[in-house]
Design brief:
49% of the residues lie in helices and 11% in strands. With 376 residues, the protein is an alpha/beta fold.
Amino acid sequence: MDFSTHKPVCIITGEECLVNNGERIAALGKKAYVVTGKRSADACGAMNDVNAVLGKYGIPYVRMNRVTENPPAEMCHEAGRECRENGCDFVVAIGGGSAIDAAKAIAAYAANPEADVMDIYDPAKHPVTDLPLCAVPTTAGTGSETNYYSVLTISNGSQKKTYKSPNAYPNIAFVDPRYTHTLSREYTVSTALDALAHAIESYLSPKSCEASMEAALFAAKEVWDVIFRNADADGDCDEGGFTAKQRERLMYASTAAGIAIDYTGTGFPHPLGYSVTLTYGIPHGRACAAFEGAFLRYNMLRSEGRAKIEELAAYVGADVEEMIRKIPEKGDVQLNLTAEQREEMIDRVAGAGNYANSWYIISRGEMSDIYERLFG
């Protein structure tokens, strides 16, 4: 299938799409700042492809391979300074959401030497431009290659905060499913659940439109078929237990879901899940999945929400109650928290705007009820 589009990111898909379109990277600048994690970009072959393209066009680069999960804004600020001082004039991000989100912030800090760490969050001090950015996703979950969100940790890692700006969109993204073939089954399921959460939360947003709903429905069905039905399982499997066709379906689902939330944003499972991730190290996709059943159940209480959920379930070929039950089960978050611990986690994300982004807006008391049912 062909999933190429431009909104406003130029998205190029397919096997070897990066090496076959190297001139697109070369057009971004004269010296690259390559942002990766420690090992995954090399293990999956993406770093080798980027190195080959940059070498072919005589473009030198500086590599920053210090990105961790839940990247700190302070680290991105320092990397922006390093990028600028090395004379790099564009950024290449290779990795999952952490690497791409970090690269968006690095591109902003590098282009704005006067910006302090928190200035990217202040509309009065917002960066007026970012360096050009090429995104090469190597996981199938965040869809960060398609949108303008950069989720970073602040306050010594105790909170997540989103930098978003029209300047933060990647200029180009190369979506090659081959780069996901080295991922473990556990990691693949978690990232797929993140894509599913994006699809569901976008579809139930009052901000949704025809374009976002089409992308969300496509993404939800692809993830449901592969993760919950094991569709397209015939054929050779990689070490994670997935066929090439399954990897392709999940990769394009992630991209589609990223497009969907670019229109709408996410709902309350995301901020509630952030606390679980930051406090207990539960992977982001699984943490979101834990709250997805409650998200569906509360939205069923509103006629608009019920109609949308029934449409979604029918499209993926599932029963509503089946989705409410199976998504948290697949997330498999096992925590036993005291009332005080639960309230502390809610306090940490109490001000998030995501709570208003669905047909049913939960109260503080309902947040407490959700945490108690899940982790009490």
